Amino acid sequence: MAKDGGGAQVCPGNQVAAGIQETPCSLEDDEVFLSAEAPAPPRPSAAPADPFRHCSVDELYELLETLGSGHFGVVRRCRERSTGVSYAAKSVKMRKRKGSRLGLDREQVEREVCILQQLQHPNIMRLHDVFSNKAEMVLILELIQGGELFDFIAKKELLSEDEAIEFLQQILHGLAYVHSRRIAHFDLKPENIMLLQKDVPNPRIKIIDFGLAQKLEEGVAYKSLCGTPQYIAPEVINYEPLSTATDMWSIGVITYILLSGMSPFQGETDEETLSNVVSGNYEFEEKYFSQTSEMAKDFIQKLLVKEPRERMTAAQCLLHPWIKPLTRKQAVNRSRSSINMENFRKFNARRKWKLSYNMVSACNRLCRLRLLCQQTTEEERDCESDQEDEPSSPVVLLRRRRSICS
Known about the structure:
Shape: globular
Order of helices and strands: EEEEHEEEHEEHHEEEEEEHHHHHHHHH
Distance between the termini: 40 Å
Strand content: 15-25%
Strand order of the largest sheet: 5-6-7-9-8
Largest sheet: 5 strands, antiparallel
Helix content: 25-40%
GO molecular function: ATP binding; protein serine/threonine kinase activity
Structural class: alpha+beta
Keywords: Apoptosis, ATP-binding, Kinase, Nucleotide-binding, Phosphoprotein, Serine/threonine-protein kinase, Transferase
Protein name: non-specific serine/threonine protein kinase
Number of helices: 13
Number of strands: 15
InterPro entries: Kinase-like_dom_sf, Prot_kinase_dom, Protein_kinase_ATP_BS, Ser/Thr_kinase_AS
GO biological process, one term: positive regulation of apoptotic process
């Protein structure tokens, strides 16, 4: 990992180009790319020191059962041979060449590794080790076994605002730490808020997936066009400079959903959702917020603000009276309010159904690509079957990446 002249760590793929950082991103099915013109990959000004091991993972870890799989990799439980401690081994396939749609961009994974190596907090997923070869990278991560927070909450009969705040406090503590290191997550959503364990008295929150995270540089404007429609801030859609305040908008959306089971900006299509986000108009419908305290609504209103500089920071959120009551009356009002559990369970069921639907769709697409690939000769395959003959228009890209969380 390279360091600049002042001793600060510099992440690969996070360099300055004419005063603006523009980082290309690899999209999941719930994310959209909002422009036809992808920014050129940044070029590091100096070759960073190699932070990866280049030996075989099997030399140091025993690879065990598969825990999950995605488009570009597999997660398996593993055991460190020297200590016997269990971790999660995330194997990620690398793109063979620029323009490929199979695998992830190496610079993107290196940037994520660089960021995770800087983060040591109880509410942030920890990176233990990294291996790299030409075909793949293997990240040895903290073993997180409690599942998604939203799934855990959906199984409860009742949940008071007090109980919800205990989880939200942990998210805010983790985020305040990340932001204090001048790092923004840029992909906060229910799927990326997990529990370390669930069958314990006080489950610990873990924020995961720093694939879109960015180290923000002083005096340098960073712009990105990636994200999940109903959780991204207006400045993302408008292609304006982003900041840690962009994460705080997402916290506002997540809190709104948590309390009501409704999404403040969700439309019938991605285009409608994005339009709703840009307008910034939302309301607290009585039928969904009848059990919600006024302090909770005030908390959300101070986050879902179009002007980023006017949003509360994570540190300020922790001092808001809804999170930290100033009087006994505020504490009593909070304890008497509750989450709309019936509606929340419906929202979570729709969200999980669409996750499954999009995974099946993705698998079908990959199968079709492989079939096409098998029909070509080795010479014809030299340019890879995952590349398109013609660039896609913004509308096509938008439709291809439908949100999975309506």
